[in-house]
User: Fold these one by one.
Assistant:
Number 1:
Amino acid sequence: MKQSEKLDLILKGLYDYKDTGKYHSLIGVCNAINIPLALEEWNRLAHRLKDDGYVRTIFNYDDCMLQLTTYGIDYCEQDSYTYSGNAIITNTYNINVENSSNINIVSQSTDVKITLETKNEADKKIELLLKKLSELTEIDNDLKTDIFDCVKDIQNKLRQNEKVPKYSLKGLIDLTSKVASLSSLGVGIAQLFGA
C-alpha cells in the first residue's frame, strides 16, 4: 500500500472522531481499519501529518496520539493525498491482503448492502469452500479446523439473519490466505460483506 493511501486512511479514520475533542492512537486507528504498518513507520506518517498541519500530535515511545486540526477537517472534506481534488471522506481505498499477490479488499466501504442475492451468493461460495476444504489432505489439521470453525460461524450468522462481524471476515481472509486453493474464495466471501 502506498504511503499516500495510508495517510488518507488515517485521516479518514480520525475524521470519524472529529467532534470528540480527544486524541486517538495512530497505531489504534491503523489496526481498526487494517492498515499494515512496517516497524517505526507510524513515526514517519505522524510527522508528515503534523508537518502538513492536519493533526496535533503527542508522541510517545511506541505510538503517537493524534487529533485533527480544523485544517485537517477541511482537507478531509475537500482533498486527498491519493486522489487530488477528491474528498478523503468519499473515496474508497484498497488494502492488500497479507501474504497474497494481486488481491485487494475495499476498506471503509459504505455502499455494501446485504440482499437476498448477496446471501445466496455467499451461501454458494461457503459451500464450495467447505467442499474444497474437506478434500484437502496436505494441510495441517489445526489450520483446517480453524478455517472450518470460522466458515461455520459466518454461515450461522447468515442463517440467523445476523450481521457478520468484521473480525470473522478478517479471520477468514487471514486463514484462507495460507492455503492457495482457498484464498480467492475466502476473499470473495469477505468482499460480499464489504470487508
Number 2:
Amino acid sequence: MKRISTSLACLLLLSITSAADKPPAKRIQLGDKVPDFSVELLDGAQHKLSQLRKNKKLSGKGVTVLTFWCSFCHSCREIDKPLQQLAKKYHGQCLVLAIDASYGETVKQVRGFCREKKLSLPVALDEFGKSADIFGVTMTTTTVVIDAEGRLRYIGRFRQGNKTPAEDALKSLLAGTDVLVQSTKPRG
C-alpha cells in the first residue's frame, strides 16, 4: 500500500509498503467507477466516500472534488484559500473535500492547523493512503473530480497558473457537459 510522506524538497511522494498477503491496489483510469473507501473527518467520525456523496446537504448532485492535501506541504499552502473558496462557492451543489493521506498526521494535528490558519474547508484523513492508491496519486495538490455516477472524470492540478482545470471540470459536470481537459500533470 502507498502512503504520503515528506521528501527533502518538501514534495510529498507516495512510498510503497507491501502487505505480504495482499497485492497493491490497481490504479483506476479516467472513466472508471471509483471504488469506495473510508476517511476520517476532523470530528473523528469515519465515513465512506459513498456516504458523503449521498448526503444531499453536502454533495448536492453527487459530483465530488477531492484534493490531496496536508498540513506540512508548502505547495498546499498555495491552494488552501482557493480550495476553501471553491468549497464555499459550490456548497450544497457538490462535495469538495481535502484529503490528508499523509502517514502519521492525526485528526488533532490537522484540526489545530486548520484552526490556526482559519481554514474551514472540509478535511478528511486517510492515514494509510488507500484513496491515494486508488487514483495513483504521488503528490499533494493533485485533484480528482468524480461525476454523479461515481466515475473519475478529471485528475491533475487544482490550479495551473491562472487556469483552473479542476473547477472547469466541476463546472462541466454540474452543467451536464463533457469535461474538455480530463488530466493535467500534477504539481506537488
Number 3:
Amino acid sequence: MHVMSVARFEHFFRAAAGFDIDKADLKRYTDFVNQKIYDLLLSAQAAAKANLRDIIQPHDLPTTQGLRKNLERFRKLDEEIELWPVLEHLATRPRLDLALSADTEARPPEIAGALSVALGHVFRIIDPKMKNPQSEQWERCIRVFDELL
C-alpha cells in the first residue's frame, strides 16, 4: 500500500474512533473489508436469485440501519480525509454467479467506508481504553462481524 494511503488510514481511524493503526493492521483491515463485502454480495446474489433476476441490484444488498448510519458518518469523515479513492482501489468485487448492475458495481467503496467506521466503533466497544489494536482485539472484532453479517 502506498505511503500516502497508509497515512490516510491512520488519520481516518484516529478521527473515526480515536486510536492508532500501523502498517501491520492494514493487511488485516484489507482482508476484513474484502471478506465482508464478499459476504454482503453473496447475500445480495441470493436475494436477486430469489426474485428470479440475473443481475444484482443495489436494493438486493442487505444494508441495515447501522450500516446506513455508518455510511453517513463515513461520508462526513471522507470530506476531510479523502479516503474514497483508496477504497475504490482496495475494495474488491469478487466473481459471483450473477452480474452486478452498474449502480451495484459502484457500491463496494462506500460499503468499505461504512464497514470501516463500524469497525472502529466495535474496537472501542470491545476495549474503550485501547490505543492500538492487537491481534486479540482484531480477532474479537472480526468474530462480532462474522456473527452479524
Number 4:
Amino acid sequence: MPENKSTIKRGYAVVALDHPMNGLNVGQALRASGCYGVDLFVVGGPHAHYHRKQLFGHPADTQKAYRHIPSCITDDVFNLLPYDCVPIAVELLPQAKSLVEYRHPERAFYIFGAEGETLDARVVDKCKEVIYVPTNFCMNLAACVNVVLYDRLAKQRRIF
C-alpha cells in the first residue's frame, strides 16, 4: 500500500543505464523507477536508438513507467546529466563506498552498467562518487536498481 505522500519531496533522482543489453532488465529497472519516484530515466549507448522498441514497452514494465517518467535514449548518459546533479557510478570497484554507510545526495544521477559488464573508465572517471551494494554474489542490473532506490527512499524518510 502506498505511503502518505504529504511529506515534501526534496531533490530528485535519475537512473541512467549505460549500454544495457537486455530489454527485460530495462523494463524491470523502469518498473523500479516508477515504484521509487525516479524523475528521469536514461538509457545510453550507441546502439540504444536501434533497440528503442525492445527497451521501452517491455512486458516487465507492468506500470508502463516510460509513460509517466521522462525516458530518454542518448549516445552518452552524461549528455543528460542535469545541472548541479551528482553523478554516481554504481559498481564493484576498490574505491567504491558501501551503500550501507552511503549518504545519498539531494540531486542524484545513478549510473548502472550493463549486465555482466563493468562500467568503463570513461564513465567512472566522470563520476563524483562510486558506490556498491554489498552482497555475497553479483546482482542483476534490475535488482541493483531496486536496492539502491529503496536505500535512497528509506534514508530520506529518516531525515524528515
